[in-house]
Amino acid sequence: MKDQVTKVIEKIKPMLAADGGSVELVGVDEKKGVVTVRLTGACGCCPHATMTLQNVVERMIKEEVPGVKAVTVG
Questions:
Q1: Number of domains the chain contains
Q2: What range defines the domain where residue 58 resides?
């Protein structure tokens, strides 16, 4: 599961980089289906970071990686 999540994050990075941000994988809890990420750069302090997390990062990871139930910031 971690390898799949890493591949999706690599697809997301260019989108966030266009706005000066990025995302890093912190960890994957395969038993719980929880992925933990860190938003960095402009995304780390942006007032819209929660929307970015939910509408871009979480949505894409859940769509492409079976078993992921939630994406959290850590």
A1: 1
A2: 2-73
* Full 3-state SS string of the chain: CHHHHHHHHHHHHHHHHCCCEEEEEEEEECCCCEEEEEEEEHHHHCCCHHHHHHHHHHHHHHHHCCCCCEEEEC
The CATH code of the domain that includes 62 is: 3.30.300.130
Q: What contacts 14, CB < 8 A, 6 or more positions away?
A: none
What is the full per-residue pLDDT of the chain (74 aa) written as tens digits?
999 999 999 999 999 999 899 999 999 999 999 999 999 988 788 788 888 888 899 999 999 999 999 999 98
Those residues whose C-beta lies under 8 Å from the C-beta of residue 27, and which sit 6 or more positions away, are 35, 36, 74
